[in-house]
Every structure is written in C-alpha cells, then in structure tokens.
Amino acid sequence: MNKVILMGRLTRDPEVRYTQTGKVVCQFTLAVDRPFANQEGQREADFIAIVVWGKIAELCGNSLTKGQRALVDGRLQIRSYDAKDGTKRWVTEVIANSVEFIERKATGSGAPVQSGDAGPKSEMESFGSAVPFDEEIPF
Amino acid sequence: MNKVILMGRLTRDPEVRYTQTGKVVCQFTLAVDRPFANQEGQREADFIAIVVWGKIAELCGNSLTKGQRALVDGRLQIRSYDAKDGTKRWVTEVIANSVEFIERKATGSGAPVQSGDAGPKSEMESFGSAVPFDEEIPF
Amino acid sequence: MNKVILMGRLTRDPEVRYTQTGKVVCQFTLAVDRPFANQEGQREADFIAIVVWGKIAELCGNSLTKGQRALVDGRLQIRSYDAKDGTKRWVTEVIANSVEFIERKATGSGAPVQSGDAGPKSEMESFGSAVPFDEEIPF
Amino acid sequence: MNKVILMGRLTRDPEVRYTQTGKVVCQFTLAVDRPFANQEGQREADFIAIVVWGKIAELCGNSLTKGQRALVDGRLQIRSYDAKDGTKRWVTEVIANSVEFIERKATGSGAPVQSGDAGPKSEMESFGSAVPFDEEIPF
DNA sequence: TTTT
DNA sequence: TTTT
C-alpha cells in the first residue's frame, strides 16, 4: 500500500516531455497548504513534485495551468540521480494515477486557458531537466 | 487535503529524540514495495522517511523494530536544511498521524523483541543527525 | 485503518441538529460521480450519507448549500436502528473528520449564499428524522 | 474522488460466485475495529461488505479465510434491490480495487489454509443470495 | 432517491 | 449481526 492524495494549486504551467522510448510524461509542482499556521501566524505550503504518465499526462498538459487547483491521487516514489558535483541525490515525487481538474481558470473570453508559449517554456525546460528521466518508470 | 497511507517494513530500529523544547520525535524509514517489477524482473522498494511526534513517537520507539511491518497514515511534508557545502537541500518526509503495528516480530522466547542496543544505536544517531530538527514541526 | 475520501456535490442543504446531550451534528448527502458510464452511456452517482460532529458541523451548516462541491475525509460507520415494521435495519454513513469547501456558490450580489429558510427546512427535518441519533457517536 | 481504505478481519470465508454473463465476483465482510471504546469501555467493530471482481476475486476466494486480516483499497458504492416486502432497499458496499493479504493463517502442517468445504459453503450461499447481483457492476 |  |  502506497497511496497519496493531494489537493493544491499548480505553481507553474505543467511541462510535458517525451522519454527516449517515446512515452509521454508530464511534470508539475503542487502547492499544498499546511493544515496549521507557523510561529508567525502564516499558513505555509508544501511544494510537491507530481509526475504523470501516458494519456493523463497529455490531458494535464492541455488543461492545467499555473494557479489552477487539482486533486491528485497517486503513490510516493523516490528517484536517485547524480548531481553535478558527482554525489548521488534523491528526489521524492508523487506518481499520479489520476488528476481531477477542480476548476477551470476563467478568461475574459470564457474559453479554456491554453498553456505553453515561448516565454514560460524555456523556464519549464530548465526545471524539468534538473532531474532527468534516464530510466523509464513503469506505469 | 494532504494524505499519505503506506504499508512497509522498518529498515532499521526507530530513533527517538527530543527537540530543544522537549518534544518527542521518532524517525524511521519504511521500505515500501513497488507494485510492479523492474526491467530485471525484480520488485524494488521505495525507502520513505517517517516522522512521528508526541505520544505515538514514544509508542513507536518502544514497540517497533527493524524488519517489522507498519501501516502509516500521515501527510507529506518538505523540510529544507543547509548542507555541509553551504547549499540548501530539501527532504521529503511523511509526518505520521497514526502508526499501526501489523505484526510483532517473533523471538525464540515468544517475548516481544526489544529495540535498541549499542551496535545499531550509533548507526541510527548518524542517520538522524543528517537533517536536524532546528524548527519545531507543529502537530 | 478505516479511511474514506469523497468528492461530490450536496444533494440538498445540510441539516444541523442537536443530540440529547447537546452535541452538534450535521448531516448531508454527497452525490459522488461514478468513474465510468453505465450501459446507457450515462455516468451515475452514488448518494452517500455524511455525518459531521462538533465545530465542523456548525461550519458545514453555515457554509454549505445544496449543489456545492465538498471534499470529505472520514471513516465508514454502520448504525443500526429499528424500522417501523419492527425489524432491525442498518445504515452506512461516512463520519467526517474534515470537510473542505471546494467552491463558494456564486450569487448575484457576490455575497456568500446563506442556507436554510422555511421551505426546505421542513423537508430536511423529515429526512433527518428517518434514522434518529439515540446514541451518541463518540468523536 | 471516491476512495476507501480498510484494514480488518474476515468475519467468514469469502464467497465466490459468477454473474449471468460469466464474471467472477467475490464477497466477504470485513470487521474493522473502531478507533475508540464505547460507553462500556469496549471497542466495537464495523462490519463492512466488500465486493471484488475479476482476477482478484479468484485470488481472494483461494487465499482468504475467516479470521484473516486483509487491507482493502476500493470505492464506496450503493446498490438498490427489492426487498421481499416489495419495498426498495439500499446496500452500501466497498468495491475493492486491491486486497492485500496481511497474514497467512497458520496451520499445523505449515501449508496455506484452503477455504471452502461442504459445511460452511451452504451458509455462505444463503448469505450471498440476500442481495442478488442482477445487474453487472462495471469494473 | 437526490447533485452538476 | 459476524472477526481477533
């Protein structure tokens, strides 16, 4: 048993990439509010890395944008990678089985907001490339 | 909503410590089997850091030992700390609300296994001190 | 371990009542969409009874109205009661630990919708009295 | 989102049956301890109906027996049926996606306990027939 | 016996 | 109407 359920907001537009073997993968970060306030009386958030594979990855890439709320159901997974300084590092990610789009971000035209244009794209790429997907994560 | 449910085995005896303000905290790592086999046909595991506070922390310290199964219910949390090289690092932990002891490890005498003796103790300490609890994590 | 997580819409305004010992209890039904279509190609819903106690009960009574979405976290519980025909019956309910209000129902004035007026009230009362709370459900 | 996670003990051997269209279905009841004691200081249990379909149904039928612990992950579903008195009734069931066998019941020989022989079989049948599966529940 |  |  390895279950995770999170509700939060995307900290940026999701990034969709393809592995060497052609699998679709979508990555984004979810800001999940903590259930309590800190010493300064502020409610912080945890910024949790989400990974989605396959058909749902495409849906997320097409439908989700920065700031939207999403309800993620998945499992915790830990990946190791080699840092630039030669040491081994670990990242903890939630591999999503399903993603529910809680709200559609309203636009002036009423049309669904479309993610991804030149500006944010490069920023996302640098984010995504920090921990490469050398190995396939089976679904 | 931030929920995690994990079932796995302790990779070592739990470590119990006290914060500067006297709160009890118990840490251990849970090996959670992946739901599929890798390319070599082996089932790997994720090694997930668990943190327990308060009364349950004491119970875990007294009752759980390396190799035992536990069912953990909690929430994902990310802590930052300063690495020895001066850079900022993040650890992802599961803050447990409850821990169910699935099985009592059998001994020759039939008595419950008692955790903690000199050998493994020092090893645990080094593990625990890697990411110090400078700040209180409110419950 | 007894955990339930549901997201759905209230089928009517919640009903708030008080037990003989003065505890607040709030009841409503959540329509939760099924994850698939039936033979006629329609997606049905399950109508699940929710029970909330204490402070959260009051919040639900004040903030939730028919049609709104809510994210409920709780546990399954089965209560028995005596039907009018003298036989024993059982109801399955979700005892909520927390209820997240996913959306505020929009009004013309922009003010939060207020639940409860004479009309629907009597209808709710009849609903609530079907299975009385003779015994306290400890929290 | 409709998620249920339960850990408890089978109150009887599971019953395996087949629908008119040849689908395998396995039913059992899980006794799930309540997290608190009642007024008499006793911990009660909720007796929750579990339904499993397909391959996992067969595994459950072959591997689980009365008294064993199981960890069930599934979703809540409500089925209606016509009572003998002509009225409509509802049953709430947990449709399991996965069932983890927490422990193997020990036998003198050390061999896995095999469920199902003539005696209990007839008892199970009567249990199962109380609420028939006239309609297929899609998976 | 229901919600959108 | 039940499990340990």
Automatic annotation (TrEMBL), chains A, B, C, D:
Domain of life of the native organism: Bacteria
Gene Ontology annotations of biological process type: DNA recombination; DNA repair; DNA replication
Claim: DNA-binding is one of the keywords in the record: yes
One GO MF term: single-stranded DNA binding
Function recorded in the entry: Plays an important role in DNA replication, recombination and repair. Binds to ssDNA and to an array of partner proteins to recruit them to their sites of action during DNA metabolism.
Subunit structure: Homotetramer.
Protein name as it appears in the record: Single-stranded DNA-binding protein
